[in-house]
Structures are given as structure tokens and as C-alpha cells.
Design goal:
By secondary structure, the chain is mainly α. It is built from three helices and no strands. It starts with a helix and ends in a 5-residue tail after the last helix.
């Protein structure tokens, strides 16, 4: 049976290394953008870039999970078809 406890997974490289670094870089770039009057546009541009990198990495992670889930569903459907009909579903 699936519940929240056995469904929750952390990928340490993403959750505990990459995302904290991206968050810190984003906060630093925003802070520099508000405090540095000379090159504030550069720092805001850097903040936008860091945000986009973090967002794209999050969306790719979601996409990989959905692709894997689709493969598992198709394999399960093929197995059930084979069990019921004793023929391969191709």
C-alpha cells in the first residue's frame, strides 16, 4: 500500500546541495541588485538567470518522473494483457 511515508523520496544531490546553492545564489544576486547602485541591472539579470536554471532543473526532474511512470504503466498493461490472453501485446 502506498502512503506518504513510503512515497516521499529525496534525491540528496538535488534537494540538499543543488537547490540550497541555487536559492543562496538567487538571494545573493537579489541582495546585490538592491544594494549595488552601479551594476544593479547586471545583478538582477544574474538573479533571473539563476531562477531560470533552478526552475528548469525542477521541471526536468518532474518530467523524468512522469516519463518513468508512463513506462511502468505501459509495462503493467502489457503484463496484464499477457496474463489474460497468453499473447504478447505488441
Amino acid at each position: 500500500m502506498q502512503n506518504y511515508k513510503n512515497h516521499l523520496r529525496f534525491y540528496p544531490a538535488h534537494h540538499f546541495v543543488f537547490y540550497p546553492i541555487v536559492t543562496a545564489l538567487f538571494a545573493f544576486a537579489l541582495w546585490q541588485g538592491f544594494t549595488d547602485e552601479v551594476s544593479s541591472k547586471v545583478w538582477f539579470f544574474a538573479a533571473v538567470l539563476v531562477f531560470i536554471i533552478g526552475w528548469v532543473s525542477f521541471m526536468l526532474r518532474q518530467h523524468y518522473g512522469m516519463t518513468l511512470q508512463n513506462r511502468v504503466v505501459i509495462l503493467e498493461m502489457r503484463l496484464r494483457y499477457f496474463v489474460l490472453t497468453n499473447q504478447r501485446l505488441e
